[in-house]
Design a protein that fits this description.
By secondary structure, this protein is α/β, with parallel strands linked by helices. Helix content is 45%, strand content 13%. α3 packs across α10.
Length: 348
């Protein structure tokens, strides 16, 4: 490893921030030795705040109806081949009940931007989830909804909101989305934070047209926002999108960036994502070893999982939640970490 890169890594570990040019260099000049040093530093700070604890979040994919048309996404409105579904309130509550029995104390309701889920429907659902499952946290991942809605859902009991910014470069944003803008995402993150949510941002690694400079901007944005959560995963093409022919993102670069993000935000809740596990059988383990501390097993009914088809080959074992969670526990123990039963809030 070049001395320059070693110095940058040491600087990042000490000051939690680099310049755009420095981040770009760290990405373009990376090698296995640099990755190893970053992993070691990231693991050390994670252990300082979270020990070897790994938090589990039960992911419930409530609907694949979506009014947005993000070019990379398999459930975008324009995909006529997507078989649509929507879970009933009863099904969602059953998923939570099942997860709670298995020791899951955070439920993530994720879905397309589906107008069926009005504030009223969601508030009622959130209140029931919190009443039925004492001490649990509810995370929402339902796209942009506006300040009034964010507030109502927060008042109904939602604790956290995940809204990836997808890319912090304005022009790159418009190559991935027919409408919306990075500026809107920034505004939404401001609303979410000020409302009181633990707020998540994030981006895809290796999305079409992404350059190292774009990733450097993502990292700068993360440093500025100081999110409580940050979701990054490799881009994976979906056959029914205009990006069908693009290469998937790199597992190795994703893990490298997980380490960097851990150093930028030492206390951030950082998942080893399903996309990472989809591209690599050892993806979850690699992510955790790189500095991630969250895993999000799927609690959706088995019949719905295949239909929440964001990208090709999405990891979707036909097995029940109980079996998946057992496997995750074992695989974490093998690498020296332990899955814990707790809400797993961000440390202050
Ligand atoms: N509608 C919600 C949830 C979207 S799904 C929202 O807009 O926030 C969650 C994440 O999956 C997205 O933020 C996106 O970053 C990721 N995703 C979508 N399509 C993908 C693809 N083809 N490859 C990898 N990740 C993808």
């Amino acid at each position: 490893m070049d001395k320059k890169i070693r110095d940058l890594i040491n600087k990042l570990a000490e000051f939690h921030c680099l310049s755009k040019e420095e981040y770009t260099l760290l990405i373009t000049e990376r090698d296995e030795e640099a990755a190893e040093l970053l992993r070691k530093k990231a693991d050390a700070v994670r252990r300082e705040y979270y020990g070897n604890d790994v938090y589990v979040r039960g992911l419930i994919e409530i609907s694949n109806f979506c009014k947005q048309n993000c070019y990379y996404c398999g459930i975008r409105a324009g995909n006529k081949n997507c078989e649509r579904y929507r879970l009933t309130e009863e099904e969602i509550l059953d998923c939570c009940k099942e997860g709670y029995k298995l020791g899951i104390h955070t439920f993530v309701l994720q879905g397309g931007e589906d107008d069926y889920f009005t504030d009223e429907v969601l508030c009622d659902l959130i209140q029931q989830i919190k009443f039925n499952n004492p001490g649990c946290a509810v995370t929402l991942s339902l796209g942009e909804r506006g300040l009034a809605s964010f507030k109502k859902l927060y008042e109904a009991g939602a604790d956290r909101y995940l809204l990836r910014h997808e890319t912090a470069d304005m022009n790159h944003y418009s190559k991935l989305h027919p409408r919306g803008s990075f500026a809107n995402r920034v505004m939404s993150h401001g609303y979410l934070k000020r409302t009181g949510y633990q707020t998540g941002c994030g981006f895809m690694v290796g999305s079409p047209y992404q350059k190292p400079e774009h990733i450097a901007l993502d990292l700068l944005y993360i440093g500025r926002l100081k999110p409580e959560m940050c979701g990054i995963g490799p881009f994976i093409p979906h056959h029914d999108t205009r990006f069908a022919g693009f290469e998937p993102g790199s597992v190795e670069l994703t893990c490298y960036l997980l380490s960097i993000i851990r150093l930028i935000c030492p206390k951030v809740l950082l998942p080893a994502t399903t996309a990472l596990a989809t591209l690599d059988k050892q993806g979850r383990e690699k992510g955790i070893l790189a500095g991630a501390n969250v895993i999000m097993p799927n609690l959706s009914p088995v019949s719905a999982r295949d239909k929440y088809d964001l990208y090709d080959g999405k990891l979707s074992s036909g097995t029940e939640a109980a079996e998946n969670i057992r496997k995750i526990k074992n695989s974490m123990e093998k690498i020296g970490y332990r899955v814990v039963v707790s809400r797993g809030d961000a440390k202050q």
